[in-house]
Amino acid sequence: MALDTETFELLLATVQRFVRERLVPAENYLEEHDKVPADIIDDMKEMGLFGLTVPEEHGGIGLSVSQEIQVNYELGRTAPAFRSVFGTNIGIGSQGILIDGTPEQKAEYLPKVASGELIMSFALTEPDAGTDAASLKTRAVLDGEHYVLSGTKRFITNAPRAGAFTLMARTGGPGASGISAFIVPADTPGLTLGKKDKKMGQRGTMTCDVILENACVPAVNIIGGVPGQGFKTAMKVLDRGRLNISAVSCGAASRILDEATAYARERKQFGKAIGEFQLIQAMLADSQAELLAGWSLVQEVARRFDNKPAHVSDPDLSMRVSCAKLFATEMVGRVADRGVQIHGGAGYINEYVVERFYRDVRLLRLYEGTTQVQQIIIGRELLRQGGQ
Ligand code: COS
Fold first, then answer.
1. Does residue 236's CB lie within 6 angstroms of at least one atom of ligand 1?
2. Contact of 74 with 21, CB cutoff 8 Å
3. Which ligand 1 atom minimizes the distance to the CA of 122?
4. How many other C-beta atoms lie within 10 A of the C-beta of residue 231?
5. What is the H or E stretch that residue 244 is in?
6. Among 70, 113, 172, 255, which is least packed by CB within 10 angstroms?
């Protein structure tokens, strides 16, 4: 599944222009008002951004993973909240249906996701189950043709915008095999939202708790129709999500580096531009080398992704995705830190772009699996392969 090269190049150029001409100028508004302007969301729908990864047969554009990461690189060059409007929707919010859903589930939900009519959000994390996702406690008890869900989901991105959730709950015993993935409409009686979380950065993104108190969901809403497969579905979804976070990290690093380079050319100290000092050049050089290394890695993993069917899990590929997420998200943290350093005191002042990016990119090392989770996945898989 991929868009033909010529059409994709046009789409990418349109996204680049949209980022440069519409999103970057709106960054200050976003930071000040903590909200993505409605006319920008309308433009996103019109451009087809809500359907980027949904297959054409379900009304989307059907990008391959290699194409999707390029779009995400471009979107990484602006505030992450813009991508979050549709990124979680076509990404972790609805990928579970795309990867493991029944034909009926795909036909019912994906066209609405592609048009932007339905926003979907991914609900795995709980107050006591973050990194240890397989220990989640939200219960789903079968009652005739329905499951009754009770529990709390935490830090759920886009929950206030969501029309439905891909929500993991326990239908069986302890551990991963007792978990099922449900499609839960946001208007289900018994489902309420907590107060909006106040975050360090990424203003304009919306996260909050999703609380379920005897929320009744039809049994046919289990993704794939078979209970006990939800943890695996969630992990497959996160494999693709983590690669996209890696691409966003590279895009963000390129923007920060552009800002730092421009500042180094303009800012004068000791009678010349600070960029003429080799200590400043060293920081720029390290950032450029690390960015290129990260982006090459992300593209290489994306190519492998495109060579396998989406529903098939491949531990070696998951390990490579974790390498990309670990490297790219840590890399952008270092690039942002150097960006602030090159700006000197100005880098700590809110009106400079690097200050905002420094806060925004901090989350990339946390969500969709911390750096330490990626290390666990890589380490375990290496040991499993036995050094061959
Ligand atoms: N694709 C498909 N299946 C996978 C998979 C993947 N990427 N990763 C694991 N599985 C399968 C395993 O093969 C195993 O199946 P079997 O029991 O049939 O062998 C099952 O899922 C359980 O896997 P595992 O034993 O590795 O589970 P753990 O409880 O040890 O969990 C970690 C491992 C820590 C890696 C996992 O819980 C994790 O990724 N945690 C972080 C969660 C996260 O990213 N949260 C962010 C929320 S979204 S912002």
1. yes
2. no
3. 48
4. 21
5. helix 230-266
6. 172
| Any ligand 1 atom below 6 A from CB of 126 | no
Check: pTM over 0.90? Answer yes or no.
yes
pLDDT per position as a tens digit, 7-43: 999 999 999 999 999 999 999 999 999 999 999 999 9
**What CA–CA distance (Å, rounded) separates 108 from 194?**
28
Instruction: Give 148-173 pLDDT, tens digit per residue.
Output: 999 999 999 999 999 999 999 999 99
- As beta bridge partners, residue 179 has 170
22 C-beta neighbours (distance < 10 Å), count: 17
Cβ contact 226:349 at 8 Å: no
Atom from ligand 1 closest to the CA of residue 231: 21
Tokens 């750096």 locate to 371
d(CA 253, CA 88): 21
> What is the C-alpha separation between 199 and 366, in angstroms, rounded?
13
The C-alpha atoms of residue 73 and residue 321 are separated, in whole angstroms, by 16
**How many angstroms is it from 65 CA to the middle of ligand 1?**
21
Interatomic CA distance for residues 60 and 247, integer angstroms: 21
Residue nearest to atom 6 of ligand 1 (CA): 235
CA distance 112 to 340: 42
Which tokens hold the place of 199? Answer: 């975050």
